[in-house]
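The following record pairs a protein chain with its ligand, S-adenosylmethionine.
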Amino acid sequence: MGKSSKDKRDAYYRLAKEQGWRARSAYKLLQLDEEFNLFEGVTRVVDLCAAPGSWSQVLSRVLIKGEKFGRAAWEEKQQKQLSASLGGSDNASTPQLVEDLAPEAAGSGETLPRRDVKIVSIDLQPMTPLDGITTLRADITHPSTIPLLLKALDPDDFDPASTSASHPVDLVLSDGAPDVTGLHDLDIYIQSQLLFAALNLALCVLKPGGKFVAKIFRGKDVDLLYAQLKAVFERVQVAKPRSSRASSIEAFVVCEGFQPPKGFAASLDNPLGAGTRLPTAPSARSPKSAGQKRSITEDGVIEVEFESEDDDENIDARWIAPFLACGDLSAYDADASYHLPKDHQSLDPVQPPTAPPYKRALELRRTAGGGYGKTSSSAS
Ligand code: SAM
């Protein structure tokens, strides 16, 4: 597919180039934030599987530079117009959310960069640096990545013997995806391993109350995954941003209110603290469960304790997470083709891949001095 026809068939690909984002994925995070207000009160973030870096760009612009996008930017603009034209005519228009996701539509530029923000981004691929962001090249499924991450988060306060962050983070993002093979079951399996690795890292660094947002592929047993997540988060929802093609099995789990089980300690050997059993989501337990002990602490907090594991036998560990479409209806439809003006100039991507898997093949072809299919027999 040529660049121009891709522009036509993928509005978000075209917009990303026009608006300075390294990848169209930026819109997914912005639309998730529109729905869930992900960045409120957040100063420490880990962005897993971050290359080429459009999510990190969003983090940098919102958290460090204090810029606003989408509805927040529109509201700020309206506020300014209103105060500029005190008593003037009401020229408010409908929010053009997609267009307002442009960096140019961001805040006034009056805000100073924030120095109390810490963002660490990790990917297998090298990532072109971004202002104020620590980037690591590492495999999130490898145990050696945990100490690397902990050191990057707290360089002056790093304890090599510990598996948890000394200053925990507010938000862990993971947009990890394997190179898709097209074999659905295999792709879903590899994706679930990435998700498990991301969750494992999140459990080591999140603070109680923290959030975890990760890409999932919705396979047939995905509700078991939701139940696992529900065991350690107060709220688990599944979201499909408008910029994610409806035809793709991709969605995002948005987990809020990290609530580590009592006595939970992050561990690489026993990541979910589950032993050989899957912990059951607190909300999946019936309040009338037998063997339940209630007590009120000195601070007036009600604690509920389940006396024996056997009580869990009658409990259905499956749990259906609420599903939310996010992104305003005025946003582009990721599956639609759009007419472009005749004089449309297709732009180059903002950030060409740093180490694409086809790089070596291109080098070999160049040294051989050939083009596609130029073998001695085909050339004749
Ligand atoms: N969120 C990114 C952005 O906005 O630019 C896009 C992420 S891209 C869809 C998926 C990324 O997952 C790829 O860059 C890939 O290298 C990374 N990835 C896949 N497996 C990984 C692993 N085991 N460890 C670290 N990164 C991984």
